[in-house]
Design brief:
homodimer, 340 residues, alpha/beta, Rossmann fold, 2 domains, 6-stranded parallel β-sheet, 24% helix
Chain lengths: 340, 340
């Protein structure tokens, strides 16, 4: 018998989630059966999309979390015992199949992939080379379809997804504008990620952001990678160029709203300007995982693509790490170190 | 010398356009030069998009109308005198190259096409087989891409564009829902256009329309052909299905707003449901004109596709016909008979 510590969801949030919605529990795991493996979780991911799974009635590709059950998400694990030929003791795997938010789990090979622990540090497999990385790469290459010389705007630019979008945009020869909420993040964007103009969204409303973007991008914004929503979407629909493309990946500004705020009045501009707006979640592009790794892993391994992680130490820190996502507490990917 | 009566724009509207913004004038036309032809306008079109050209600062593919100059738009004309080998006296042509809102014009062959006056009545070349027809067909086939068995919702369903979208949707095997603003139009939609469920938008707000659509389309709406905007967009983003497609063709509810109303708060749904929203204007699809005529003209000629026109008699009625677009005054295409 193996004891697994886990973080469970105790209640659904009404508005912003709070620490009291989480509870710790321990469960005894049975021995793995044929086709299964026992793993210990080394690192787990906290991501904004998890807030969506805390709405019991939301209509989404992913079902809501159940109360008094462990939460789940991406995790990097070590195989301790295997009863399946696809995994061996000592393998390091990453996946979303039931090993997140807990110390140990019984898994099946489906939904996990073996990874090379020597290529990049393990937390990067939850960030730049993980689900956020695929999200960034797929939204940019499959929806925005960058052309050299075009202008790209990225909201949430210093986040796990946004920071890769910015750097890939530069890699493809675009002028890149990005927004974040602190001077430290703006500095990182310009100095490390190569962003051409960084905006502090906290200093703007839709009108002033419209003006500020128009000053540096008088021909308009060709591609908008949307992580935030709210007044930034309002502003970007004012400055979007003819034939502009919007990859709608997240609207974190709205995730905790008890009542949804009004949408962008400027949405009417999509008609005369022939704008495409495509909402997506990463699983829509799961079939492109290999193409993503093939293109991006060498850029990361060579240091051409920078990545940052904010590491929280200990499973018990997972709620704090998650809540920090909505307060702009992290630069780059927020990851929780669970095991040794 | 030929005298041309014309309707000019006297001032830009602030909000809803009013009759006093239009003025009649007569001008003497010079004789056609080499490469030109003199035409008399038989029928002219009034369309909602013209309101957009009355905003002097709007950023669009089409420039705004100039003050104290004639307005322009689609027109069916007879060639009176030709100095170009591409046109002959007596030819009937249709196009948007400077013959709308006036009785006579000097044109060039570019932007006009010869038409067969025996195939369908001439006003149909401004409606079901004209620009609104191409708009309907292109938005449906190129953006929504119907699949048999899917559900389609059409706002402004009894209008020039919407009535064709509805019928093509049925032709492609879809369940079709449509909205309009009078019992007479709802009856026409169900009895003539074959619409499965017709909604009177005047009897609904976003919440009740959401509920009404969900009752008849419990699996959601796969395709939304958007002509109206406002609360209908709010409702449709509530009931849009996974992988739904929205062809954003018009938002007439907003055209006369002095200040743009808030957008749809439900826009966040495009992310978890992977929804595509594509704004477009007909000229984006001008290159598909031949494909459109090839597919739709036989359906119209055979009577399989029904079409209605509301005909206003006399050039001087053009402002009234145009203003009626914003009051739901017309079933089908609004056309002004200008010449004999």
């Amino acid at each position: 018998m193996t004891t697994s510590r886990q973080i469970q969801l105790k209640g659904y949030p009404d508005g912003a989630p709070t620490p009291d919605l989480f509870q710790e529990a321990t469960v005894e795991l049975p021995a793995p059966q044929d086709g299964q493996a026992l793993v210990e979780t080394l690192y787990m991911s906290v991501d904004p999309y998890m807030r969506g799974r805390m709405n019991p009635h939301v209509k989404s590709y992913i079902p809501p979390f159940q109360l008094n059950e462990p939460l789940d998400g991406g995790a990097v694990c070590r195989v301790l015992e295997s009863k399946t030929p696809e995994l061996s003791e000592g393998d390091i795997v990453v996946g979303m199949g039931g090993a997140g938010w807990r110390s140990h789990a019984i898994i099946t090979p489906k939904g996990f992939s073996k990874i090379d622990p020597d290529l990049v540090p393990l937390p990067a497999y939850l960030g730049v080379l993980g689900m956020p990385g695929l999200t960034a790469w797929a939204g940019l290459t499959q929806i925005i379809k960058p052309k050299e010389g075009e202008t790209l705007y990225v909201s949430g630019a210093a986040g796990a997804v946004g920071s890769l979008v910015c750097q890939l945009g530069k890699h493809y020869g675009m002028t890149v504008l990005g927004s974040a909420g602190s001077q430290e993040k703006l500095d990182w964007l310009v100095r490390e990620a190569g962003v051409d103009h960084a905006f502090n969204y906290k200093e703007h409303d839709a009108r002033s952001l419209t003006k500020a973007i128009a000053e540096v991008a008088p021909k308009g914004v060709d591609g908008y990678f949307e992580n935030v929503g709210g007044m930034q979407l309002e502003a970007l629909l004012n400055v979007i160029a003819f034939g502009g493309r919007i990859a709608a990946c997240g609207m974190i500004a709205n995730y905790n709203a008890k009542e949804l705020p009004p949408g962008p009045s400027s949405i009417i501009n999509i008609i005369p300007r022939g704008v495409l707006m495509q909402g997506f979640i990463v699983s829509n592009y799961a079939h492109l995982q290999d193409d993503f790794i093939k293109e991006v892993a060498p850029l990361v391994a060579s240091g051409k693509i920078k990545h940052e992680e904010t590491i929280y130490d200990g499973l018990e820190k997972a709620p704090e790490a998650f809540l920090g996502l909505f307060e702009g507490a992290n630069t780059g990917k927020a990851v929780v170190k669970v095991g040794a």
